[in-house]
Write a structure and sequence with these properties.
The complex is a heterodimer of chains A (310) and B (93). The longest helix of chain A has 21 residues, at 287-307. Chain A is of the alpha/beta class and 310 residues long. The termini of chain A are far apart. Chain A has helices at residues 16-29, 74-90, 95-103, 114-122, 175-187, 217-235, 244-247, 255-261, 287-307; strands at 34-41, 47-53, 62-67, 105-109, 190-198, 202-205, 240-243, 266-272. In chain A, strands 1-2-4-3-5-8-6-7 form an 8-stranded mixed β-sheet, sandwiched between helices. In chain A, helix 2 (74-90) packs across helix 9, helix 3 (95-103) crosses helix 9 and helix 6 runs antiparallel to helix 9. In chain B, strand 2 (35-38) and strand 3 (46-51) form a beta hairpin. Chain B is built from 3 helices and 4 strands; from the N terminus they run E-H-E-E-H-E-H. Chain B is elongated, with a radius of gyration of 15 Å. Chain B has 93 residues and is of the alpha+beta class. Classes of the chains: A alpha/beta (310), B alpha+beta (93). At the A-B interface, loops of A face strand 2, strand 3 and helix 3 of B.
Chain lengths: 310, 93
């Protein structure tokens, strides 16, 4: 086992035990900034662990980050680890991070779908869904990013349990989704949700379940434009941006649509990089470059949230 | 453990909306067991499709008969997975 966050190999992929141990180490290394909370349990009873970055206060405005709702997107969880460490290290050093955390809390769920993640390590590297059993079907799992109560069950999701985009029997049927939704609603002061995926090189915002623009479409579009520009400035990685429906396709029941419809104005979803050769099998040598280029884009969004209270 | 020996990932570029529709129809053919890694969205935008070894002839015939251009993005998925495992083990050591 790693003994310290300083010896943790951020340039390698890790098992869930290694990641959960690392989260505990991060808490130990930054006791006045980072704590760990459990927001629920997965279908197979694994803890849904969330890192809380806070400098104090009571129920401060908050930013929610999650990685790995689709477990096969390994670059995403790996980027999440690097990013969480970066937030902890930069507090007190970087003026933007310090300003954010002096006013707001950050919640970070690094392994949003732990059952699926374990399954990708043990049985099927390319697994996308949860691991819940579907009554009356031999096929296992629900696509947790079609399971949210935002246009649930419409076009862009499947009613077939054997499909990779199966929306599940009802909205929030998956404990991984319900726990997250309950946490955000229960908190009541989450101002931004950033849900991170891979690998289409996109920065997207609501809506996916309808083509109508969100009321602050122009603001979201301009912020996304700045974020992808700053991202590209690091290694030249080109991102597209826009609403989900306009940029990819109609997709119902997604996390960021749900967040937006529940009052979280700054809801974004990233699709991290692939240079076009590896897809979900992106070599570990690309973890740090991917995380490094993503950081300024994330920071742009978080600073914007800080500077535009509502 | 599920193995992906001989599976390929095809990078497919549809030239118009009709070809995108054809790709979606292809994805719905359960017997082929294809898996879109990146879904077809708009003309000129690449889609990535993992195709099991047993379905490769049928899928490639489908694409060629409909004049849908593609290239092989990953020759053998299992080879890459094995490489990934080796990298992780080496990192642990």
């Amino acid at each position: 086992k790693e003994r310290s966050t300083s010896t943790f190999d951020f340039a390698s992929y890790h098992t869930i035990d290694e990641i959960y141990n690392w989260m505990d180490m991060l808490v130990e290394d930054h006791p006045n900034l980072v704590s760990k909370i459990q927001i629920g349990q997965s279908y197979e009873n694994r803890p849904l662990n969330v890192l809380k970055f806070s400098t104090g206060g009571s129920n401060r405005s908050a930013i929610w980050l999650d990685t790995g709702i689709h477990p096969r997107e390994w670059i995403t969880q790996a980027t999440g680890i690097w990013t969480a460490n970066k937030i902890a290290e930069e507090y007190g050093q970087d003026t933007s991070v310090t300003a954010i955390l002096d006013s707001m809390d950050i919640f970070f769920e690094i392994v949003t779908n732990p059952d699926g993640f374990v399954f990708t390590h043990s049985s099927d590297r390319l697994w996308r869904k949860t691991r819940s059993i579907n009554a009356g079907s031999p096929c296992v799992g629900v696509d947790p990013n079609r399971n949210w109560d935002a246009g649930f069950g419409g076009p862009g999701a499947s009613s077939d349990p054997c499909s990779e985009t199966y929306h599940g029997p009802y909205a929030h049927s998956e404990s991984e989704v319900k726990a997250l939704a309950d946490f955000i609603l229960g908190h009541g002061n989450v101002k931004s949700v950033i849900s991170i995926h891979s690998y289409s090189q996109m920065l997207l915002f609501p809506y996916g379940y309808k083509t109508a623009p969100v009321p602050n479409h122009q603001e979201m579009n301009e912020l996304a434009k700045k974020a992808v520009s700053d991202l590209a400035a690091v290694y030249g990685t080109k991102y597209t941006y826009g609403s989900i429906a306009d940029t990819i396709y109609a997709a119902d029941g997604t996390a960021v649509d749900w967040a937006y419809d529940n009052g979280v104005k700054y809801s974004f979803t990233f699709e991290l990089r692939d240079s076009g050769r590896y897809g979900f099998l992106l070599p570990s040598a690309q973890i740090i470059p991917t995380a490094t280029e993503t950081w300024p884009a994330l920071l742009d969004i978080m600073v914007h949230v800080l500077e535009h209270p509502y | 453990e599920k193995l992906f020996t001989g599976d390929q990932v095809l990078r497919i570029t549809a030239s118009d909306e009709e070809q995108i529709t054809q790709l979606r129809v292809l994805g719905e053919q359960a017997e082929l067991q294809v898996d879109f890694w990146r879904h077809p969205t708009s003309p000129g935008h690449p889609a990535d499709l993992r195709v099991p070894f047993s379905s490769l002839p049928a899928v490639k015939t489908f694409l060629e008969s409909n004049n849908i251009s593609y290239s092989i993005m990953i020759e053998d998925v299992q080879e890459l997975l094995d490489e990934e495992k080796r990298t992780m083990m080496k990192s642990r050591r």
